[in-house]
Design brief:
two-stranded antiparallel ribbon; about 160 residues; globular; four-stranded parallel sheet; 8 strands; alpha/beta
């Protein structure tokens, strides 16, 4: 089983009420080969919501108590990101997910890159809170690009 970010399967759950639909990922959900999760909604957020970024590091730093997640209004929303990450981990374990495919660049789901905490659109290397927690627990986390590249490589011609 695969766990995927809900927005990649077409759910309008992103901070601004949009999705990032990828038809191949949606098909996996329709075929019951994947289940959806939105760590931010699992953490108690509503849609839409103010954008948030990690201040002072990456998701790993948040897990270690050295960084925080703050929204564009200046509110510390770290606890909600931590709660959503924990719920996503629980879902992944319950589903027996071998792979989790998360939306790149998010303070929750980014697997290789996240925004730098200045709300300027600049990215830095690193993982979001959920991606870091899943990896810490031995679960393979891929961005949608990595997953789809692997799927293309492994699909028969």
């Amino acid at each position: 089983m695969i766990l995927v970010s809900s927005c990649l399967a077409g759910m309008k759950v992103r901070y601004n009420g949009t999705d990032r639909l990828d038809e191949r990922i949606r098909r996996l959900v329709d075929e019951k080969k994947a289940v959806m999760a939105c760590p931010e909604l699992l953490g108690g957020f509503q849609t839409p919501r103010p954008p948030a970024e990690i201040i002072g590091g990456t998701g790993e730093d948040v897990l270690n108590g050295r960084a925080s997640v703050v929204d564009s209004l200046g509110r510390d929303v770290t606890a909600m990101y931590m709660a959503g990450a924990a719920e996503t981990l629980k879902m992944a374990k319950e589903a027996g997910a071998a792979i989790v495919v998360l939306k790149e660049n998010s303070p929750s789901c980014g697997s290789k890159a996240i925004y730098n905490g200045t709300f300027s659109g600049e990215k830095i290397p690193g993982a979001g809170v959920t991606a870091a927690l899943l990896r810490r627990n031995g679960i393979k986390v891929l961005s949608e690009e990595e997953f789809l590249e692997e799927a293309d490589i492994n699909s028969p011609e």
